[in-house]
Amino acid sequence: MATPIALSATHAAHTARPARWSALLLAGVAAAAALALAVGDPAVLLERDRELGTLLRGMAAIKALLVAVAVAAVVWRLRQPVSVRLALGYLAGVWAMTAATAAIWQLTAIGAAAALFHAGEVAVLVLAWRDGLWARAGRRR
């Protein structure tokens, strides 16, 4: 039988400090947005078809709201003990959503960006569904 110290060490090896995960999430969101905004020039499409550009930017604004909700939810989740694999999955999903939203705002590779956004969104939702903490938090109310 494992001792309490051994169990504690094993648990610590598979989890990380919540503040580090949240800081990493926010730094990655900023980096993903900056990188995607640095790529491409929306002026070309805006000159050709201003209405389409406005529509696509409106869609990007709606996606930005979804990213903000995902960031808030994942920051909340990362304040609890979490395995490294689960945390990395949450980070990758939110970062993908962020980069895709910024790319759509820049009117760059819209089809690929839309696919990336939805892949990140599905990843975050599947991880949340498989993660038992969300269900336990709902039952505590």
Give structural notes.
By secondary structure, this protein is mainly alpha-helical. It is built from 7 helices and no strands. Helix 2 runs antiparallel to helix 4, helix 2 runs parallel beside helix 5 (84-105) and helix 5 (84-105) runs antiparallel to helix 6 (110-130). The protein is elongated. The two termini are 36 Å apart.
Helix proportion range: over 70%
* Structural class based on helices, strands and sheet pairing: mainly alpha
- Count of DSSP strands: 0
How far is the N terminus from the C terminus?
36 Å
Mean pLDDT value:
85
The helix tally amounts to 7
> What general form does the structure show?
elongated
Oligomer: single chain
Biggest beta sheet attributes: none
Which radius of gyration do the C-alpha atoms yield? 18 Å
Task: Give start-end ranges of low-pLDDT stretches.
Answer: 3-13
Secondary-structure element order, as H and E?
A: HHHHHHH
Fraction in beta strands: under 5%
In short:
With 141 residues, the protein is mostly helical.
Which SSEs are present, and which pair or pack?
Blueprint: H1 4-14, H2 18-38, H3 43-48, H4 50-78, H5 84-105, H6 110-130, H7 132-139
Helix pairs in contact: 2-4, 2-5, 4-5, 5-6
